Amino acid sequence: MASFQYEALKISDRSRINGTINAGSEKEARELLREQNLIPTKIVIINSEAVQAGKKGNPISNFMQQIMGVGAKEKIAFTRNLGMMIRAGIPVTEALLYYENYASNPKFRKIVQRIRQDIISGYAFSQALAKHKQLFDDVYVNVTKAGERSGELDQTMGRLTHLLTKAEQLKMKIISAAVYPIIVVVILALVLLIMFVLVLPTFADIYKQMGVKLPLITQIMMAISNALRNYWFVSFPILGFSLFGLFKFFTSSTGKIIVDSFVMKVPVLGDLIKHTQSSHFVSTLYVAFGAGLPITDALYLSSETLTHTQIRAAFKQVNVQIQTGQRLAVALASTGYVPDIVMLMISTGEESGDLEKMLEASYDYLEEEINHRVGVLTSLMEPVMLLVIGTVVGFVALSIYLPLFSIYDHIH
Known about the structure:
This protein has helices at about 25-35, 50-55, 60-70, 70-85, 90-100, 105-120, 125-130, 140-150, 155-210, 215-230, 230-250, 255-265, 270-290, 295-305, 310-325, 330-335, 340-350, 355-410; strands spanning about 1-10, 15-25, 40-45. It has 18 helices and 3 strands. Helix 4 packs across helix 5, helix 9 packs across helix 10 (about 215-230) and helix 10 (about 215-230) packs across helix 11.
């Protein structure tokens, strides 16, 4: 026995109807529908023994999905497909049932199941989503609520799909730009570890046998080497705890302010962060405002998506200025983080009454600028990393060979 999602026409008045039916095969499902005076136009299997077997999947894969949770790609696919099914006239509960049966992630299946059960119990779709803050943030929930009120939930899901997709693409661009320096730093750390543990001790024995007086820089390097080789059971835990302490500090509110203030002063990187944060703000504002939320609510949600402490505080003041009667373009200009061309577009949108269109154009402009700046930053990474590697390796090499120079001078 299997379950089928169907679309059909009533013979009596030719009205369209959607629903689910249990049958042994698609042919049997069509016959059962005809017996109910319905003309089936579309039948899709949504549950069978084969599907249930597929849902179980690989135990290892399911275990990893339980640990990792729901990824951005799954969330995007859910939003896109749900919007398409709603646009096709399928009720939200039946669309969720379809996803509940077909989702490969067991954790996501449970969330979808709870959402569907809450809707059946009388909750609105947005209220059911709000119970799962770890997956659906305030922007998602409030935009969905606006779509429900306006009766344009399918279009709203399309806007959210666009927003989530662009945010994920931007995230991947930033990650790809950071991969190279991270790999270089890891390799450099391994090379230094090998030099301290294997290379420097060899030179230390040679210098000791020759009775060479070591320069201060060499003494420091030899002391580090000795600590790593002979007291590793103390050195490595101290190093680990130190790195963990630095991580906890820099992720704290105080440390984050320090880091955010520093990176804004770094050439190229500071401009990239400004454009990235402005892009987050404008894209969320475009989706929230387009969904029908009041401008003040849309501005509040947009500022909440920002992660940079200084920029977030500046954009929060935009909402305050709007509530006192200030124009949006003027309020954004006061932050000092929005490019002039974006403010010009938004000002034009306010004057023409087509702010939504100008917000979309502003986001497209910011996306192009981000692509350009990521390219510039990536091209600068290689010479900067080479300079860092050369400096560190040169420093270690100098500590090794300085005593040799003193030996050479002593011989002559």
